[in-house]
Specification:
This protein is an alpha+beta fold. It has a single domain, classed as Fumarylacetoacetate hydrolase, domain 2 (Alpha-Beta Complex). It is built from five helices and 18 strands. Strands 3, 4, 5, 8, 9, 11, 12 and 15 form an eight-stranded mixed β-sheet that branches. It starts with 12 loop residues before the first strand and ends with a strand. The relative contact order is 0.26.
């Protein structure tokens, strides 16, 4: 093995409720427009033929409870509260039952977004990276194992900014369920342990500002929080 010229910053390991060992972050896939009311507030229609995806770099992942600088280059930094799932077994071209069996755990996540840059790039039919693959923008709360929790439709998903309610929906609004997402994505990637999937955000996304405290919850999962500092 060739020696390393330098060391990279460590990628965080996500705590797992009831386990001493945590979940290492391999890849981060994100589903776009998976709640109809959110697609509508973004001024676009939902494609019900197939889900679509973007990715975030594992290097941009952080854990719940962090305080991070307000990011550069945006006048419209948005919160997106999401259900994340963590793959626990290799799965490729899976049917829905195989897909569900490959899910190791679930957790609350935030997909923080430079909305102005995402929309600008979207309107120019360019990739979304500047808007979506933002430093410190993939936030994960401790995971709950799939034998102790399931994404039932009545479960609420909520987000508050400084205590004010911003997003309030239930998982019944998911267009593509978790097994459909994993099954579909496994047609394109050899999914494996370390792969996380953010399943999209409900309506109510909006701008946040320096000093804001973002908190989110999904019934039965560990809550998530993020504090924004001053811009650098
Ligand atoms: Mn999202």
């Amino acid at each position: 093995m060739t020696a390393r010229l330098f060391e990279l910053p460590e990628i965080p390991v996500i705590p797992v409720v009831g386990e001493n060992a945590g979940y290492p972050i391999g890849r981060i896939f994100c589903v776009g427009r998976n709640y109809a009311a959110h697609a509508a507030e973004m001024g676009v229609e939902v494609d019900r033929e197939a889900p679509f995806y973007f990715t975030k770099s594992p290097a941009n992942a952080i854990l719940s409870g962090a305080t991070v600088p307000f990011p550069s280059g945006t006048e419209n930094f948005h919160h997106e509260m999401e259900l994340a799932l963590a793959i626990g077994a290799p799965v490729f071209r899976a049917d829905k039952a195989e897909a569900r069996a490959a899910i190791f755990a679930y957790g609350c996540a935030l997909d923080m977004t430079r909305r102005d840059l995402q929309i600008r790039e979207r309107n120019k039919q360019r990739p979304w990276d500047l808007g979506k693959d933002v430093e410190n923008s993939a936030v994960f709360a401790p995971l709950t194992k799939a034998d102790g929790w399931s994404p039932d439709p009545e479960k609420a998903i909520r987000l508050h900014v400084n205590g004010d309610a911003r997003q309030d929906a239930t998982l019944s609004e998911l267009i593509w369920g978790v097994d459909e997402i994993v099954s579909h994505l496994s047609g394109y990637y050899h999914l494996r342990p370390g792969d996380l999937i953010m399943t999209g955000t409900p309506a109510g996304v909006g701008a946040v500002a320096p000093q804001d405290v973002i908190t989110g919850e999904i019934d039965g999962l560990s809550p998530i929080s993020l504090t924004l500092g001053q811009p650098e």
